[in-house]
Every structure is written in C-alpha cells, then in structure tokens.
Write a structure and sequence with these properties.
This protein has 312 residues and is mainly alpha-helical. The chain has 10 helices and 4 strands, in the order H-H-H-E-H-E-H-H-H-H-E-H-E-H. The strands form 2 sheets. Strands 1-4 form a two-stranded antiparallel ribbon. The protein has a two-stranded antiparallel ribbon with strand order 2-3. It starts with a helix and ends with a helix.
Amino acid sequence: MSYVLILIGLVILIFGGDILVQGASGIAKKLRLSPLVIGMTVVAFGTSAPELMVSIKAALMDSPEIALGNVIGSNIANIALVLGITVLILPLAIDVNSKNIDWPVMFGASMLFFIWAFDGEISRIEGLMMFLMLIIFTWLIIRNSRRKNKKKPKDESEVVPNIYLSIGKNLVGLVMLYFGSKWLVEGAITVAKDFGIEERIIGVTVIAFGTSVPELAASIMAAIRKETDISIGNLIGSNIFNILCVIGLTAFITPIPVSEKTINPDMIWMLAIAFGLGIILFFWKKINRWHGLVLVTSYLAYIAILVKSQAG
C-alpha cells in the first residue's frame, strides 16, 4: 500500500505542478513580464510548489530529515540532472542576467542556508528572514522587468489566456499538490522504516527526484521551444525558491533540526554543484552538451556515494 501511495502521490504532484504552471504563466502574460522573469518567478515558484508542500508536511509529521533532504536533493537534481539532461537535448545560450544577478543570488542563498544550518538548527527567526529576502528579491526583478517592458510596443497578436481560467488552474493545481505531497510523504516514511533506510536518503533521492519532475518537464519543453530564458530561469529560480521559501516557511512553522550527515556530504554537494554552474556561466557563452554530460555524471556520482554509505 505504501508503494501505491508513493506512486499516486508522484503522479498527482506532476499533474498538479503542470496545471499550476499553466495558470501562473497565464497570469504572468497578463502582467507583461519577460520570459526570464516568468521563468525566475511564476514558473519556478509553480514547479517548486511540490517541494514546499512536501517539506511542510514532512516537518509537521516530525520528519525533518525528509524536509531538508527534499530541498537539498531537489537543488542538486535541478542543476546536475535537470539542467544536464536539458542541455544534452539542446545547448542553452547564457543570459547576462542569469550570470550577473540570478546565479549570485542562488549561490548566496545556498551559502546562507549552509551557515545557518551549521549550528544544528534552522530557527524560526532565520526562516522568517529567508522568506523576507525572497519577497524583496521577487519584487525587485518584477519591478525591473515591468519597467523595461513598458518601453516596448505591445504585441497585439499575442493570445493572453483568460485571467479567471488561469486563477482557477492555480487553485486546482494547489489542491492536487496538497494531496499529492501528503500521500508521497506518508508512503516514503513507511518504506524508509520498513527497509531501515535513513529518512535523509529517502528525502534526497526518491522524494527530491519526484518533486523535481515538474522542473524537468518545464525546462525540456522550454528548451525545445527555444525559450532558453525560461529554461535557465526556471531552474535557478526554483533553487532560490527552495531555500528562501520552502526552508524559510517550513522553519518558521516549526524549527528544523539539522544533522551532521545532512551538512556533510549533502549540503557540501549542493554548494559544489552550484559553484560549478557559476564557473560554466562565467567562462562560457553557452551551456554545451559536454557540460550537460559532466553535470549528469556528477549527479550519478552523488547517488552512488549515497547508496554506498547506506550499504556501509
């Protein structure tokens, strides 16, 4: 029954995330936001909603290792696996804003997460500060995007979805994400206990991959449609959202204890992958297929180390 719950939860999360993104994208078009900002905010937040639901639910069910592992594992998977697979399909041009603004914010948030976790707990105050940082960052990039777009002529041929239909999709997506996350966490906790698998490993592998599926689908489709700004913005924005909102709100609701095993190796890998992305962004004009191969290989190496540590 636990496996059925996990499967149903994953399926509902995937479809719920897709419906949420559709609705959010419609609202974003109505507000005349650029593709990069749509990727960094609306699409990124929509595809990260499963992480938010899963982490809050896990923390409230006294499974903080799953809440933390879900975010850390998702951030590793978003860059190493999702971006890696995306550029293997189609190399992506690097936007100057991704390099000079978005990546530094992502890496800064990752470092802040690491520093605040080092004392063994993410407190309510730290969680609140994370969430306030996200609000400020989001407000700034939306304000700048709207200022730039006001100077551009409006494209009369563009079809803007009905705003009420978009809001309705948002609500349906959120309901699906709630139930999907509930069943996924319940099933995963049961399986972990039955097989003696650490909740941390379940969080950074099975659940993290499952909640990263919306990012994978959104990024691949954006790359295929040549919307590279949305693709890169989605992944960097998702990682920022995962730390500042998912960890921030979860810690504000209930302080999150952090074990030494979570800090090393999981958070060290998260920082290393984020730093590696920065090297690619600053020294190349495109994220090429060989970069994708290196990223995917690093993800497989991380999973292999986890499996070995569990077996040991």
